[in-house]
Amino acid sequence: MNQQIYREQLLELWKHPLNKGIIENPSCEFKETNSFCGDEITIQLTIKNKIVKDAKFHGAGCVISIAMASLLTEEIKGKSLEEIKKINPEKIINSLGVELNPVRAKCALISLTALQKAIK
Amino acid sequence: MNHKKEFPIFQKNPKLIYLDSAATTQKPKVVIDAINKFYKEFNANINRGLYDLSIKSTEAYESAREKIANFINADKHEIIFTSGTTDSLNKLSRALPKLFNKRNEIVLTEMEHHSNLVPWQETAKENKMKLKFIPLKNMELDYEIAEKIINDKTAIVSLTYLSNSLGTINNIEKIIELAKKHGAIVIIDAAQSIAHKKIDVKKLNADFLVFSGHKMFASTGIGIIYGKKQILEKLPAFQFGGDMIKEVSLEESSYELPPKKFEAGTPNIAGAISLGKAIDYINNIGINKIEKYENELTTYTIKELKKIPKIIIYESENQGPIISFNLDNIHPHDIASILSYENIAIRAGHHCCMPLMKKLEVQGTCRISLSIYNNKEDIDKLIQGIKKVKEVFK
Q1: Distance (Å, rounded) from C-alpha B285 to C-alpha B288?
Q2: Which of A73, B10, B163, B230 is placed for a possible disulfide with A19 were both Cys, Cβ 3.0 to 4.6 Å?
Q3: pLDDT over 90 for what percent of chain A?
Q4: What is the mean pLDDT of chain B?
Q5: Helix (H, G, I), strand (E, B) or coil at B317
């Protein structure tokens, strides 16, 4: 592993996250906690006809978890619930474009877990 | 003080700056050799055979018990081997409520490790007891409130000597005095203090004291319960089976005297031997010398950290060799990750103290913990590393 984790794009997403905020009347939401570090990420969705119309997140976390939550909420807009259920954790980690050790992989996956629990 | 060369891990990893001794210490060669020697030369079960090897391993196991007893000024019959501090606290939390009738309050503090909190939550539920907490004030315990919380309803007071996340050294003498005044049983969690401060259980007058071997240069999987003889005699056994019995019939059994009564089954013999050796190692250097050296290094570390802009140090007036900090709005995980690229090992997160983090209103902290193999050079490299973190996030 190297400092590649902290490449520009991810730091930029941490400084200026996408979709960070609150949906007033979400169709569903879920708050997931990372038991290792205590971080919490809440994912909120607006769903119409089983399609995600809007997705936002709030909570605090490290560069990896915030960047991932940004990318993930962006990615799922317009997707169907069935498609979301099929999101592969490994693929989503790869989408960050950096190598993560098992501990940091947990940081990355907190928002996906929150998302998949929210639509259950 | 230069003890780094006595720890083989630094030969294998010459660039390693290890600042996570509160999680587990590195092991000196003498301890590793002692474990090796046991398995290579006299491995046998204890208290069993009449053959030489078994006699030798029994002697080594019991001699470790004696060394531990001497180290904290206890009697060897007051030393029970467990698998670690968590095991010790779980066992006490199950057994102790059986000694009480009317007293139904358990007093803890807001800074306890989960291992000195969660077992008591279960005990309280099962035995219809109440949990009370001595609150925090400026990273110290609030001793004025402690005086009100500890009273004639208090059955047990259990607290840490040295906070694993803040580094605060608690005035346990005062808490023990309060508990004794009201006839409560006191347990001291010495997991974080045992490798750093002299402990004399007779002077302290605590009823129980628990700690782990692996935080004091011994192997993992070995720990201790010290208990006052007169209480151990009344305390019911934790577990049942071989080694702890006197006589067994198909219908009933009678049990050995303490400490054997509390050590059912084959124990961690190699672990006990490693702990005995670790204590020899500490004694050879001198625990008071260790404390003095680490105090100086702690002061130096805090002084250097304070020069970094936007750093928040969770400092108390009585600081042990553990320092917690946060840097600006940078997440502790990110700080620890970047430091790890510089071969600097620190801990980041909630340190198994989620309620304490909530109280401090943080998600977590970065924690540096020092030992005898650390020196000013390590700290200077840490400071350089933290400057690199700031570079990344500028």
Answers
A1: 9
A2: A73
A3: 63
A4: 96
A5: coil
A81-111 pLDDT, tens digit per residue, is 999 999 999 988 888 888 888 888 888 999 9
Chain A residues in contact with B343 (beta carbon < 8 A) = none
pLDDT average, residue stretch B325-354: 93
Q: Is B364's CB within 8 Å of A38's CB?
A: yes
Residue A13 lies in a domain: no
For the whole model, what pTM was predicted? 0.93
Task: Give the mutation candidate from B333, B339, B352, B354 for the A interface (greatest A CB count, under 10 A).
Answer: B333
Shortest alpha-carbon distance between residue A4 and chain B (Å):
10
Is residue A106, in this structure, part of any structural domain at all?
yes
The stretches of B156-286 forming alpha helices (DSSP H) are: 172-181, 201-204, 229-232, 269-285
Please indicate, yes or no, if residue B20 is contained in any of the structural domains: no
Chain B CB contacts of A64 under 8 Å are 333-334
Tokens linked to B50: 């009449």
CATH of the domain at B326: 3.90.1150.10
DSSP-derived 3-state class of residue B329: coil
Q: Is it the case that residue B293 has pLDDT exceeding 70? A: yes
Contact B337 A5 (CB under 8 A): yes
Tell me the C-alpha to C-alpha distance, in Å, between residue B37 and each of B99, B274, B284, B344.
Answer: 42, 10, 20, 32
pLDDT number for residue A3: 60
State residue A1's pLDDT score. 42
Q: Among residues B319, B293, B292, which one has the least CA distance to residue B306?
A: B319
Q: What is the DSSP string of A56-103?
A: EEEEE--HHHHHHHHHHHHHHTT-BHHHHHT--HHHHHHTTTS---HH
CA distance B337 to chain A (A): 9
> Has residue B24 been placed in a domain?
no
Give φ, ψ of B189 to 5 degrees: -90, 105
For tokens 């698998």, the residue is B83
Kindly provide the ipTM of the predicted complex, given to two decimals: 0.83
What is the average per-residue pLDDT within B269-278? 98
